Amino acid sequence: MSEQAITRDQFSFWAEVEVRWGDMDAQGHVNNAVYFTYCETARIKLLRSIGVLGRSGGAAQGPTLVTTSCDFKQQVRYPATRDIGVRVERVGQRSFELSYGMFRQGTDEFVAGARSVNAWVDFAQARAVPLPDEVRATLGQYKTESP
Amino acid sequence: MSEQAITRDQFSFWAEVEVRWGDMDAQGHVNNAVYFTYCETARIKLLRSIGVLGRSGGAAQGPTLVTTSCDFKQQVRYPATRDIGVRVERVGQRSFELSYGMFRQGTDEFVAGARSVNAWVDFAQARAVPLPDEVRATLGQYKTESP
Amino acid sequence: MSEQAITRDQFSFWAEVEVRWGDMDAQGHVNNAVYFTYCETARIKLLRSIGVLGRSGGAAQGPTLVTTSCDFKQQVRYPATRDIGVRVERVGQRSFELSYGMFRQGTDEFVAGARSVNAWVDFAQARAVPLPDEVRATLGQYKTESP
Amino acid sequence: MSEQAITRDQFSFWAEVEVRWGDMDAQGHVNNAVYFTYCETARIKLLRSIGVLGRSGGAAQGPTLVTTSCDFKQQVRYPATRDIGVRVERVGQRSFELSYGMFRQGTDEFVAGARSVNAWVDFAQARAVPLPDEVRATLGQYKTESP
Question: For D24, which of A21, A26, A33 is closest by C-beta distance?
Fold first, then answer.
């Protein structure tokens, strides 16, 4: 994650996540693993919005998470809502990369940044295959000029 | 994560995690966020073993997660047990970095690799402070020669 | 849970819960344990709205869950939002009982019904103590005439 | 749950659950919803041991949870292991009922008691059907004389 300021205009797709009381752990703030659930929520909302349903939606091909990371900048406590911005960082032959920015609702207050790489997989064959052209094209629309 | 083979001898502390049926998501394998819970389980076991209890244990100072990442190499399905190896990658002035290797129980079959950086924080002041000497020394014992 | 129809007018407090993709388990619908998280979300929203913050909010006295149950009438799949109605079933000397009705958003379609009993506990003494009069009175306002 | 003492000899099948640090919530003890995950873990272990794999295991018929409840007697904090005893309470035409007793590992210290009713469902038809004779017979072996 670059040291440059991360701002809302760097993201092109948005999801809102309402923090549940149960998302907090014994330290009294949202547990680190739950940030990945928040990003998953935003990622799946983006993918569904472009018609990608994935394995659990009955598709023969679709994305499988290969790697993910998160930088935690602020603790989050219930009650709270967070805006999660997503942009497409890279569309490769058999994979794509997303960046996420989590912000305090309706503000520029940056809470966490994350990345993920998904391979595009034929589920029956259990191996990566080329991204269909229409998926590649649609994902490309969520690229943002680098700041 | 380097492309070099990741093997059990690169880790110096071990935790065992039994996969719960409920760890699986709608794709029928362990959800990505749960891998971070597995690593958290191993990290906290290591920290407790060297006397670091953390905020939830009532300490005035202790580790706070700053960044974490995971590379997923194999899907995991219930029923299963995984061995999680941990090594100390780096001990800094006000932070330390851990590496994790997840293996199929009792084998060299590598399932996932992860990293984490924890800052050492004074909880009341909410800012990073120098690691106590004894914590630094003990963590140093879990370093492993780079492969 | 009575066999009588459960309808929205039997509840006096409402919370909305957005289903997360990760709430689903390997059967492809929301996992049973997550329904209890949904009820917890509604219960804590109700309690906070009447000024009861609980142990994690730093109070010396407050509610501790003693028993809870849930009847599952419909499976829930992502994407979905559910309305959770709550009513106060009983206010006792040292405990109170809540009923919950989960409905498909904006409809009378009944999805699940739940109950909970919370003891009122002095946290330092770790024992049940009488409910403060103002809590008793305020909870009483969320009683609904039995259908 | 009867007021009679609940003891280990009332259960005929056992599962062990290791508490994860992340099972705790902001109150610093295991969250109520997680007790249902513990029971699920024990239930699925029992069902798999008698050859019942369920929907996620690819079966055409199998159990679907209809109702569940839990009485919380003791708080649980990490680190801990709990023994969960299960017995078959009732085998009906199209459903079966289980009782659970959670104990501090290796002791008679009773922590929580739970119940569940599962319908036996044809998944394609989405309706309850009679339990196969062999499942009924095998479940019957896990009945325990009422105390």
Answer: A26
Q: Is A58 on the interface with C (CB under 8 A)?
A: no
Confidence of residue A57 (pLDDT cuts 50, 70, 90): confident
Would D3 be classed as within a structural domain? Answer: no
Q: Is residue C104 part of a domain?
A: yes
Q: Is B145 helix (H, G, I), strand (E, B) or coil?
A: coil
CB-based contact, D141 to chain B, within 8 Å = no
Return the residue matching tokens 């309402």. A18
| pLDDT tens string C70-87 | 999 999 999 999 999 999
Both tokens of A48, joined, read 């569904």
Residue among A33, A43, A38 nearest A86 (CA): A43
The CA distance from D100 to D70, in Å, is 9
**Each residue's pLDDT tens digit, B74-114:** 999 999 999 999 999 999 999 999 999 999 999 999 999 99
Three-state DSSP state, D81: strand
- C37, A48: Cβ pair inside 8 Å? no
E-strand ranges in chain C read 13-18, 61-72, 81-91, 95-104, 110-122, 127-128
Q: For B111-137, write each residue's pLDDT tens digit.
A: 999 999 999 999 999 999 999 999 999
| Residue A1 domain flag | no
Decide if C2 is inside a domain.
no
Q: How crowded is residue D136: how many other Cβ atoms within 10 Å of its Cβ?
A: 15
Q: Which domain holds residue A67?
A: 8-140
Contact C32 D56 (CB under 8 A): no
Q: Which long-range CB contacts under 8 A does B135-142 form with residues at least 24 apart?
A: B135/B50, B135/B52, B136/B91, B138/B50, B138/B51, B139/B50, B139/B88, B139/B91, B139/B96, B140/B88, B140/B91, B141/B12, B142/B12, B142/B13, B142/B46, B142/B86, B142/B87, B142/B88
How many independent structural domains does chain A possess?
1
Residues of B with Cβ-Cβ distance to C22 under 8 angstroms:
25, 31, 33
Task: Please state the pTM of the whole predicted model.
Answer: 0.96
Residues from chain C that touch B37, judged by Cβ atoms under 8 A, are none
CB contacts of D31 in chain A (<8 Å) are 22
Domain at C130, CATH number: 3.10.129.10
Using CA atoms, how far residue D106 sits from B54, C33, D35, D83, D111, in Å, is 28, 26, 18, 7, 12
